């Protein structure tokens, strides 16, 4: 077959409407008017398609009275159409088998999913997986079948759910939505719901199917609330504790400090090397203690002089703790208590004790 003729043949078959015309002509001769009524295509378009089919050798024509009738060319078109049917049937069988396997995998996924999956048809439950049965307090899936969407929603959330449902019925998927839902016994729980419209193949065009995936987040929200409370209490403790509390990264830079001394700007501390907060002769001691804590993962404690108060230099009892991340020291927590008064008092006591000992010796 010549290339030009091959191109004309496959080009003629590449249009669904032209294939429809060939299928109609397999039933016998027809004129243009009959083909127009059967295909609901415009007369000029049908005539154009018939011309293409004729040039490809698939259709013949003859004059019958006032009409021109068209017929399928039995020598070329009929054998070709039979081969196309055989190929299409074989391909369709493979596609159907693949669809069956995909559906089986999807069913297994839904059945074993830890998230509740519910399918609604025209607003009523037609399917619920085991997780949904447990979540909504039913004994079996039958306990949920036939229930309406709104029967699972507290009155307070009905307007929000109504808008959500309307969007889904319009064929638009909905992102994650947080709201409260009701179990069949009336008890409520916090949930996250994600919905998508389903293109059903076994229902009429007037029916709407919506799939909802539901996750019970009651414990998650309670945990978040407890965490926020703990963080609030910790912030309160941090701001009221008399000690300075710092988080120090592996480069010995201050990442956080709970408070600052009067006359000091926070920007002068955050991001700066904490070694420089000590008085010159004590900086090497601070550096060694921090490096040792990073290397060994063991807490350290030192007594140093550092800057603070409005008076300038103070004595600090410094405790260095460890914050691990995946078995590696990620940060250090440094707690520095101002012990200037204690150190000064101890020095005075030592001086007083020395004076007393010298006094007793002088009397002897």
Radius of gyration: 42 Å
**Portion in strands:** 25-35%
Number of strands: 13
Number of helices: 10
Structural class: alpha+beta
The CATH superfamily of the largest domain is PAS domain
Helix coverage percent of residues?
A: 40-55%
Reading the helices and strands in chain order gives HHEHHEEHEEHHEEEHEEHEEEH
User: Could you give the order of strands across the largest sheet?
Assistant: 5-4-8-7-6
For the sheet with most strands, the description reads:
5 strands, antiparallel
Catalogue the unreliable spans.
202-206
CATH topology-level fold name of the largest domain: Beta-Lactamase
- Give the rounded overall mean pLDDT: 84
Domain count: the total is 3
Task: Note the gap between the termini.
Answer: 137 Å
Give the name of the CATH architecture of the largest domain: 2-Layer Sandwich
CATH class membership of the largest domain: Alpha Beta
Question: What oligomeric state best describes the polypeptide chains here?
Answer: single chain
Name the shape in a single word.
elongated
Describe the structure.
With 364 residues, this protein is α+β, with helices and mostly antiparallel strands. It has 3 domains: 3-83, Arc Repressor Mutant, subunit A, CATH 1.10.10; 113-222, PAS domain (Beta-Lactamase); 241-346, 2-Layer Sandwich (Beta-Lactamase). The chain is 44% helix and 26% strand. It has helices spanning 3-13, 16-25, 32-39, 43-55, 77-112, 130-135, 158-169, 218-240, 280-296, 340-363; strands at 30-31, 59-64, 67-72, 116-121, 124-128, 174-182, 188-198, 209-216, 244-248, 254-257, 300-308, 312-325, 328-338. The chain has a 5-stranded antiparallel sheet, with helices on both faces. Strands 10-9-13-12-11 form a 5-stranded antiparallel sheet, sandwiched between helices. A 3-stranded antiparallel sheet has the order 1-3-2. Helix 2 (16-25) crosses helix 4 (43-55). The chain is elongated and about 155 Å long. It starts with a helix and ends with a helix.
């Amino acid at each position: 077959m010549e290339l030009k003729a091959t191109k004309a043949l496959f080009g003629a078959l590449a249009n669904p409407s032209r294939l429809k015309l060939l299928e109609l002509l397999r039933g016998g001769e027809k004129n243009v008017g009959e083909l127009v009524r059967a295909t609901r295509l415009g007369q000029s378009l049908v005539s154009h398609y018939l011309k293409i089919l004729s040039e490809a050798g698939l259709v013949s024509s003859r004059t019958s009275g006032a009409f021109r009738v068209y017929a399928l060319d039995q020598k070329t078109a009929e054998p070709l159409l039979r081969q196309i049917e055989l190929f299409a049937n074989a391909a369709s069988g493979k596609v159907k088998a693949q669809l069956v396997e995909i559906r089986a995998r999807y069913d297994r996924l839904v059945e074993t999913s830890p998230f509740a999956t519910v399918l609604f048809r025209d607003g009523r439950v037609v399917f619920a997986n085991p997780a949904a049965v447990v979540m909504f307090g039913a004994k079996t899936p039958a306990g949920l079948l036939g229930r309406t969407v709104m029967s699972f929603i507290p009155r307070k959330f009905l307007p929000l759910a109504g808008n959500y449902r309307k969007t889904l019925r319009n064929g638009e998927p909905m992102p994650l939505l947080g709201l409260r839902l009701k179990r069949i016994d009336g008890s409520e729980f916090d949930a996250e719901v994600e919905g998508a419209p389903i293109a059903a193949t076994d229902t009429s065009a007037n029916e709407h199917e919506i799939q909802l995936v539901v996750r019970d987040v009651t414990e998650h929200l309670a945990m978040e609330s407890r965490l926020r409370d703990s963080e609030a209490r910790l912030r309160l403790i941090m701001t009221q504790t008399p000690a300075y509390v710092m988080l120090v990264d592996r480069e010995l830079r201050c990442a956080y400090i709970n408070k600052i001394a009067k006359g000091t700007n926070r920007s002068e501390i955050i991001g700066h090397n904490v070694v420089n907060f000590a008085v010159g002769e004590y900086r090497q001691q601070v550096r060694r203690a921090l490096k040792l804590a990073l290397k060994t993962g063991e807490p350290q404690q030192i007594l140093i002089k550092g800057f603070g108060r409005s008076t300038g230099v103070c004595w600090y009892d410094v405790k260095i703790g460890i914050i691990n991340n995946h078995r590696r020291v990620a940060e250090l927590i440094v707690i520095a208590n101002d012990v200037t008064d204690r150190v000064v008092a101890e020095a005075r006591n030592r001086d007083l004790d020395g004076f007393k000992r010298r006094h007793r010796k002088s009397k002897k």
